[in-house]
């Protein structure tokens, strides 16, 4: 984990140096704002899962992504560019009276109904990935990107850095509090270590709507349903 943080920090530092170099040049193309920082807040929709699992989801699944990007403008037409970078994405999916037993020794990932057993009042599954995004971008007014229609399509490749479940406040089957116990379990063995996604964004200025669809399964083959998360939400970008 420390190595991943160091890689991310080094990329940010390199981008800062590059941005300073751009500031000192007279080239309009190099001075163009390139959405070098992207912060995304979204919700996750699980496709490919049976109703027995989807019906147990509760509340709004929340995801947060942060990317640092390097924007390379086409010299022949500065409305178009290609951007690449690095970042971290995370997702929190919440369940009611349910358990995703990621530490099980079974060959298939157990999704356990706890209607008649002790369960946690709050329970979530969290996944986090280190990702490398690549975008093909269009900005209709590149000389004033803050007042411009923008669109982008792309792909991203990620590697799993954390998978855990967290439960708070243990209750009995009638909803009475047993204890304020907090349980956090970490295990990635049932989950694909690599994530491949297609992405899209459209918006105006520093705000856009984004979507990201995982084209391979969240879980390894044969250990559970073919879950392919779709994340949609708001992207705030700039610099």
> What is the number of E strands?
11
Decide which structural class fits the backbone.
Answer: mainly beta
How many separate helices?
Answer: 3
In terms of per-residue confidence, which ranges show pLDDT below 50 for 5 or more consecutive residues?
1-7, 16-31
Major sheet: order of its strands? 1-2-3-6-7-9-10-11
- Would you list the SSEs in sequence order as H and E? HHEHEEEEEEEEEE
Q: Could you say which overall geometry the principal axes of the C-alpha atoms support?
A: elongated
Q: Alpha-carbon distance between the termini? A: 28 Å
Share in helix? 10-25%
Tally of distinct domains: 1
How much strand? Answer: over 45%
Average of per-residue pLDDT values: 89
Q: Compute the gyration radius: what is it?
A: 21 Å
Main beta-sheet strand count, sense and barrel state: 8 strands, antiparallel, barrel
Polypeptide structure, described:
With 239 residues, the chain is mainly β. It has one domain (2-238). It contains three helices and eleven strands; from the N terminus they run ααβαββββββββββ. It has helices spanning 2-23, 28-31, 51-54, and strands at residues 37-47, 62-73, 80-95, 98-100, 111-113, 119-139, 149-171, 177-186, 194-204, 207-214, 228-238. β7 (149-171) and β8 (177-186) form a beta hairpin. The radius of gyration is 21 Å and the shape is elongated. Residues 1-7 and 16-31 have low confidence and may be disordered.
Question: How would you sum up this structure in a few lines?
Answer:
This protein has 239 residues and is mostly beta strands. The protein contains three helices and eleven strands.
């Amino acid at each position: 984990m420390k190595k991943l943080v160091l890689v991310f920090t080094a990329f940010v530092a390199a981008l800062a140096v590059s941005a300073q170099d751009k500031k000192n040049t007279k080239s309009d193309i190099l001075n163009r704002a390139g959405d070098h920082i992207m912060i995304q807040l979204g919700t996750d929709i699980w496709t490919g899962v049976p109703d027995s699992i989807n019906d147990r989801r509760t509340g709004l699944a929340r995801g947060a992504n942060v990317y640092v990007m390097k924007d390379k403008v086409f010299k022949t037409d500065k409305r178009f560019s290609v951007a690449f970078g690095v970042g971290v994405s995370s997702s929190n999916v919440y369940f009611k009276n349910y358990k995703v037993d990621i530490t099980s020794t079974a060959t298939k990932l157990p999704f356990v109904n706890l209607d008649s057993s002790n369960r946690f009042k709050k329970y979530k599954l969290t996944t986090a990935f280190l990702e490398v995004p690549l975008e093909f971008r269009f900005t209709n007014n590149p000389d004033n990107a803050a007042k411009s229609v923008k669109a982008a399509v792309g792909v991203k490749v990620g590697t799993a850095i954390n998978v855990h479940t967290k439960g708070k406040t243990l209750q009995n089957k009638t909803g009475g509090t047993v204890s304020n116990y907090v349980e956090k379990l970490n295990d990635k063995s049932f989950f694909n270590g690599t994530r491949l996604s297609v992405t899209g964004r459209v918006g105006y200025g520093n705000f856009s709507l984004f979507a990201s669809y995982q084209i391979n399964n969240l879980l390894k083959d044969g250990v559970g349903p073919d879950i392919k998360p779709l994340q949609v939400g708001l992207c705030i970008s700039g610099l």
